Amino acid sequence: MKDFRLCDNTNLECVLGLCKKYDLGIEVQSFHDPYILEKEPDLMEKHVDCMKELSNPKSLHAPFWELNMGSKMHGVVDETIKMYAFAYEIAIKLNCKEVVVHNGYFPNAYSETGWIKRAAEQWRNFLSEKKEICFYIENQFELSADVSCRLIDEADMDNLKICLDVGHANVFSTEPVTEWIKGASDRIGYVHLHNNNGKSDLHNGLEDGTIPIKEVIDHLERYAPDTVLCIETQIPELEKSYLFLKSVLEG
């Protein structure tokens, strides 16, 4: 059975109803803001209570602002580790088994080999005693799957895999999303599904954009069949997009 999830777009209570209606998992995104508990100190308790209502799989999106595991700046790396540790602790409290993070890589800003080695070492150190949770590195500005694949291979950790964001790949990559899937293959364990016009990261419904979703799903079934399929559209498009995705998979 496919592991379908809906991203809550920081509106847990709204999306939780859809998850219960269709028996789906959820990705919690409220804590991508690392300072949210300063502004809403009761938010954690609310999330813990709400998550008790859902027995299906749960995942968490980590903070991502200006974070970079492969930076040469010690302060940047230290802050990145601090933010990922924050996400890890939240995931434990909410019983999330997966955490999604952004890669923090900017094309042509570094030596690829040097950046990959630095980031891989930091990931090995960070994850060595956190084996109960899998971290998924999400592409953002990468031009191809190459850097993400090399990082996963260099780190060589069972709990570090790729989150393919098809919308980011459609906007920023020089190769089609289907080539990303072929290149990364079973390194992909998690997918953010949404659509756009190839110019802006719009998070449209799955049928509204230039990404050939049916072809993408066909490639995922062939090259990464066990991946989590997480719909990350705008909230009004979630239900329609899930039903479309379900129909695609059912043929």
Number of strands: 8
Strand content: 15-25%
Q: In what order do the strands lie side by side in the largest sheet? A: 1-2-3-4-5-6-7-8
Total number of helices: 10
Biggest beta sheet attributes = 8 strands, parallel, barrel
User: What number of domains?
Assistant: 1
Ranges with pLDDT <50 over ≥5 residues? none
At CATH's second level, what is the architecture? Alpha-Beta Barrel
Q: How far from one another are the termini?
A: 15 Å
Pairing-aware structural class of the strands and helices?
alpha/beta
Shape summary: globular
What is CATH's topology name? TIM Barrel
Give structural attributes:
alpha/beta, TIM Barrel, 10 helices, globular
Written overview of the protein:
This protein is α/β, with parallel strands linked by helices and 251 residues long. It is 44% helix and 15% strand. The chain has a single domain (4-250), classed as Alpha-Beta Barrel (TIM Barrel), CATH 3.20.20. The chain has 10 helices and 8 strands. The protein has an 8-stranded parallel barrel with strand order 1-2-3-4-5-6-7-8, surrounded by 6 helices. Helix 5 crosses helix 6 and helix 8 (177-184) packs parallel to helix 9. The radius of gyration is 17 Å and the shape is globular.
